[in-house]
Amino acid sequence: MISQKIKKMSLGLGLMASLSACGAYDVAELKERDIDPSTFGGAVAEEYRKFVAFEADQMMDWPDANYFAAKALRVLGDPAAAQPEDFSKWNIDEQFLEDLEVGDKRLRVAMRLIQPEEGAQDLARAITSFDCWIEQAEEGWQTDHIAACQTAFNDALEGLEAKKGIEITDAGEAKVRLVVHHDLDQSHPRTDDLILIQSFASKGWDDLQLHVHVVGHTDRSGSEEHNQKLSVSRALAVVNAIKATWPGEYTFSIEGLGETTPAFATADGVEDIRNRRTEAEVTLSIEPEFPSIETATR
């Protein structure tokens, strides 16, 4: 497949010769356009504008400036056009491909889990920095520029992770952690914590592949044998609460650790609600295939 660089070069040769035609017009229009960066589309276009100015004014790379100026203008007309480049269509040296593949997986998970209005600035920086990373990797010789784009991309994703309380892995999965608490010697989660479980069902992730690892814990107020059984019972109760609430298809694994791993260290025999907890780690994948242990469908 012909590379994006060749496509851009074929479009940009006339521009470089005469500084006329629509490419120069796109760059000039983007520079003069009144952009509202508080919206997602505006934030994306503003980030592209910075990149275009650098490519045109400092690097004198008019084909790339033209290409991304046109893309920014499309995004201003339709924010749904804010999609990252397909790095496989660019002529990139093999030494950069592995990192770009990881970045691509992480970005696509972030874009699926986080609505543009929820993380407009960081999501815009992630998309545009990824495109910058691809463009610099195709040129291949300015390693400091490649590293700067890659770092900006990772920083933007870390901002999204912190704001949304998720972890996006290099494997292209996301992890979300829920912690619910229990009354003394009770398996069922407290009422307030049931609301937390129920709220997860409203996130609109039911089309994704989900695996939930559930771990029950106790405080140190009972015997070790009793607490071990109680921790398993708590994990099962949380699984049942999830089954009763969450739509879609998902798999489970459960574990009971009794009083062995307290969230807060206490003396033996001490009651502490902070330790009477069940932790659920939800792993989400946008890939169609996902390991199955026990499948529950509602």
Average pLDDT for all residues: 89
Total strands: the figure is 6
Biggest pleated-sheet summary: 6 strands, mixed
Large-scale geometry: elongated
Q: How many structural domains in the coordinates? A: 2
Low-confidence stretches: 5-21, 291-298
Percentage of β-strand residues: 5-15%
Topology of this structure?
Elements: H1 4-18, H2 21-32, H3 40-58, H4 62-77, H5 94-113, H6 120-139, H7 143-164, E1 166-168, E2 173-181, H8 191-200, E3 209-216, H9 224-245, E4 249-256, E5 277-285, E6 295-297
Parallel strand pairs: 3-4
Antiparallel strand pairs: 1-2, 2-5, 3-5, 4-6
Highlighted features:
52% helix; single chain; 60s Ribosomal Protein L30, Chain: A
Explained architecture:
The chain is an alpha+beta fold and 298 residues long. The chain has two domains: 162 residues, no CATH class; 125 residues, OmpA-like domain (60s Ribosomal Protein L30, Chain: A, 2-Layer Sandwich), CATH 3.30.1330. The protein is 52% helix and 13% strand. The protein is built from nine helices and six strands, in the order αααααααββαβαβββ. Strands 1-2-5-3-4-6 form a six-stranded mixed sheet. α9 links the parallel β3 and β4. α1 crosses α2, α5 runs parallel beside α7 and α6 runs antiparallel to α7. The radius of gyration is 25 Å and the shape is elongated. The relative contact order is 0.10. The C terminus is likely disordered.
